[in-house]
Write a structure and sequence with these properties.
This protein is α/β, with parallel strands linked by helices. It has one domain: Collagenase (Catalytic Domain), CATH 3.40.390.30. 46% of the residues lie in helices and 18% in strands. It contains five helices and four strands, in the order βαβαββααα. Strands 1-2-4-3 form a four-stranded mixed sheet, with helices on both faces. Helix 1 (14-30) crosses helix 5 (133-150) and helix 3 (96-105) crosses helix 4 (110-125).
Amino acid sequence: MQLELIDETGSVTEQQQNLLKNVLELAAKRESVEPNAEVSLTFITDEEIKEINRDYREKDQVTDVISFALEEHTEDELVVQGEDIPIHYGDIVISIDRAYAQADEYNHSIDRELAFLAVHGLLHLIGYDHQTKEEEQMMFSKQEEILNEYGLKRHEK
């Protein structure tokens, strides 16, 4: 999977960027994501994510992560794919402010929180959701399995 990482806040370290690339590669491999898949991961502020949440989801509040899937097709839409044509799954947008606040609130490292949010966003891009209890249980179990496999367990600061 090809990952474009954009830090509009200037606060995500190179070490954290590498961690996120590695965790997302693990998640992509576990979920059989196409090797030529493209995903962008952008870090912004609370103020900016609130604007996006309001404009695109009609929720005038801050949130931690928003995913914009680009691979959802209608029945009549022609989809052209080939070995050399990258599949752009979509964009993951994370509020760095919320990530720090939640890491503190849940008493674990910022690295774990960033990885949690990134994996959560990727799972949304590939079709997982948490609208029902069953969907939530499935999605959150997958997130925990991926983070645990990578060594980012809960409550580690």
